[in-house]
Amino acid sequence: MTSFPKIWFLRHGQTEWNAERRIQGQLESRLSPLGQSHAQQQAVLLRPILRQAPQCFASPLGRAQETAAIALAGTDFATDPRLAEADAGALQGLTMRDVESRFPEIWAANPKHLDLFCAAPNGEGYTSFHARILSFMQALTGPSVVVAHGLLGQVMRGIAQGLSRQQMAELSNQQGCIYLLEDGTERLLQ
After folding, report:
1. Which of 7, 35, 68, 146 could form a disulfide with 31 if both were Cys (CB 3.0 to 4.6 A apart)?
2. 182 is a catalytic site residue
3. How many CB atoms lie under 10 A from the CB of residue 98?
């Protein structure tokens, strides 16, 4: 298993579309009031971590940028396009109910969100998604805070722990917390 620097991973706070069970992928949806409180919870958890002066990175998508602005409390961060969520192609903008009715075969064959997004018609697919996340992780030069997305986090956390794709799809996807990735293990900070 490849070794990576320590990573503190933050999923963005709840968005308006998360609350509607609508697929965002690389489309935009603002943080809900609950999502803003998730980012504020992360800010409290990050205070002692930021004193260690880690490098900080965020996805270019608005919900991650908004979360980073709150959670990092003014700490500078770099925006990296490799941290964008999976492109879910034709499924983006649809509710889960829409996907089930319009794409019943894909829905039935992919019960986990990671698999569903990666099976999307005209989407990015798992191989490309995994490759760009791994490229980002291999470029890290020291302890880092990463503010990004749920499925991206599942893959990043899975890579750090040496998990299979199936195991990655089973990982939790919480908001308002931090996943600490260190020495091939994961610890949830709440």
Report:
1. 35
2. no
3. 15
Domain count, the chain: 1
9: phi then psi, degrees, rounded to nearest 5: -100, 130
**Considering just the CA atoms, what is the radius of gyration of the chain in Å?**
16
Number of H helices, E strands in the chain: 9, 6
pLDDT in tens, 128-167: 999 999 999 999 999 999 999 999 999 999 999 999 999 9
pLDDT digits (tens, 9 = 90+) for 80-104: 999 999 999 999 999 999 999 999 9
Residue pair 16/32 in contact (Cβ under 8 Å)? The answer is yes
In a domain, 1, yes or no: no
Confidence grade of residue 184 (pLDDT, cut at 50, 70, 90): very high
Q: Which of 38, 66, 85, 149 is catalytic?
A: 85
Task: Clarify whether 85 is annotated catalytic.
Answer: yes
Residue 168 forms part of a structural domain: yes
pTM above 0.85, yes or no: yes
Of the residues 12, 38, 130, 149, only one is catalytic, namely 12
The enclosing domain of 157 has a CATH number of: 3.40.50.1240
Structure tokens at 27: 């489309």
